[in-house]
């Protein structure tokens, strides 16, 4: 699987305070829980939709199953997460995807030792990107640019593409994350 060129942005271009968040290979939710009180998942959308232009080729499908959530601390949005997979993957390797509810998706992905993860990719998105637009719809006014990361999880031949957009409140930690 290849990502569009702009998802290969050099990490050195991201704000230093975001580096630990962008590069965490384990559960982002666990890292958030170590740094913020009362992490919760707010479901924004779960259903079928057309894949965005920069993700359709990742799954070789135009119509995908999608889950969009906000990871928040005390109602303060920290991360907008957008996860997609195919209908076939919902019947096989990622059959729990549609039944996650308000539980963090990472809790399922990192609990299963057979699920593998690709390398992480980074990108600075702006108001032209559909995920920036969706994040703004969910949380209100946003800076002109936001950093995001993307990776693919594999369960056998099935794939799940996860994109996490880091919101301004995440950088409120004065000295960066503790975990």
UniProtKB/TrEMBL annotation:
Q: Report any Pfam family annotated for this entry.
A: Chor_lyase
Localization per record = Cytoplasm
What are the binding positions for substrate in this chain? 67, 105, 164
- Name the chemical reaction catalysed here: chorismate = 4-hydroxybenzoate + pyruvate
Q: Which GO terms describe its biological process?
A: pyruvate biosynthetic process; ubiquinone biosynthetic process
Tell me yes or no: is Amino-acid biosynthesis among this UniProt entry's keywords: no
What are the protein's GO molecular function terms?
chorismate lyase activity
EC code(s) of this entry: 4.1.3.40
GO CC terms for this protein?
Answer: cytosol
Q: In which pathway does it act?
A: Cofactor biosynthesis; ubiquinone biosynthesis
Which key words are in the record? Cytoplasm, Lyase, Pyruvate, Ubiquinone biosynthesis
Q: What family does this belong to?
A: Belongs to the UbiC family.
Q: What does this protein do?
A: Removes the pyruvyl group from chorismate, with concomitant aromatization of the ring, to provide 4-hydroxybenzoate (4HB) for the ubiquinone pathway.
Question: What's the protein called, per UniProt?
Answer: Probable chorismate pyruvate-lyase
Q: Which organism is it from?
A: Iodobacter ciconiae
